[in-house]
Structure formats: structure tokens, C-alpha cells
Amino acid sequence: MKVLISGGAGYIGSTVASACLDAGITPVILDSLVTGRREFTEGRPFHQGDIADGPLVDRVFAEHPEIEAAVHCAALIVVPDSVGDPLGYYRANVAKSLDFVGHLVRNGCQKMIFSSSGSIYLPGEDLSVDEDSGIAPQSPYARTKAVCEGMFADIAATQPIRILSLRYFNPIGADPRMRTGLQLRRPGHALASSSRPTTRVCRSGSPAPTGPPATAR
Q1: What is the pTM of this model?
Q2: Would you call 90 a catalytic residue per the annotation?
Q3: Of the listed 11, 89, 121, 141, which one is catalytic?
């Protein structure tokens, strides 16, 4: 069995690919490497290119007829960037996702998991959310995810494809076997940012500062 993973050279997509390998499933990676990392594709079938490129997606399916499902992780994800460039975010996350699901349907792919976001929820007074929370995205990035969910629901209602949206946010950590992980020096999401340690550097021969050891901030 094979699974096509769009954005499979990125943080989430590559970790999904590792999990597939551990489960005996062959991940087929489709990634433009705009933000993905080539080293995360090593030892995995890899096709470099855009998810909106129909002939490329057709070639992927022709070369891997065993593909039974897709996991759609390809997206731009930086909230401040989405505020500054909503046009680019809607083009990359919505318009290209529409093209991509059309390519899947044309090639007979009947199952897709969409990497959505918990940021589409309306937080409660204590800032918590759950699956009963209202939908009220607060940024262009989050709205692209909400738009895609609605778009995919409409498509799945009439086309021979089932689509599941997985909502999550602030992932952190790495593959347990350290094959993949977050590779940004200054990650933008909250939990990863809060995990950066505070480091004190002392000149040789100078007294070390007293006080408690440095902690994460």
C-alpha cells in the first residue's frame, strides 16, 4: 500500500511519512521544497513540484498505481505572513488545494486526510477550545483552512472521494527515531517558541553568574 503525502518534506508531512513507514505503508512524497527539506525525503519516493501541477500529479499516480489515499499537508502556515500577504496565502492554500483535490479525483483517489488547524475554532473565555467550539478563524491563515474544509465538504458530497479534516495546532517535538522534526531556528508557533532555552555565555576567566539555572521561556 502507498499513500501520497503532499508537503511530505515539511515538518508535519515528513513525520506522517515516518509513521507510514513504521506501519508498513510506503509514503510517496510530493513537495515543492519551498519550505520543505530535501533531507526529509531520503529513502522515500519523492517527486519535486507543485500540488497544482496536474501533469505532475498524473505522473505520480502513473508511477505509483498502488496509491490508495492522500494526506494533504502542503500549505503556507505562518500567521503574521498571512496577514501581510493574504493574496499569496489564499492562492497557495485554497486555490492550489482545489486544483490538487481535482487531480486526486481524476486519478481515482477516493480517500484524503486534510491537515487543517485548530486555529479555526472560537476560543472560550479561558482561551480553550474543543470540538464543540464555534468556528471563527482569527487570521487569514486560519480562514484559508476553514475555507478549504467547506470546499472539501462540498466536493465530497458529490464526488467519489471521502475527506477527513484533522484539526490541530502548535505541534512540537520530533519523530521518536529522530528522522524528522522541526528545523526552524526561530519557529513561529507558540509552544515551539516557548521551548527555546535561555543560554548564558560567560567569557573565559570571568565569574559565572549566580542564581538558578537557565530555564525555558
Answers
A1: 0.83
A2: no
A3: 141
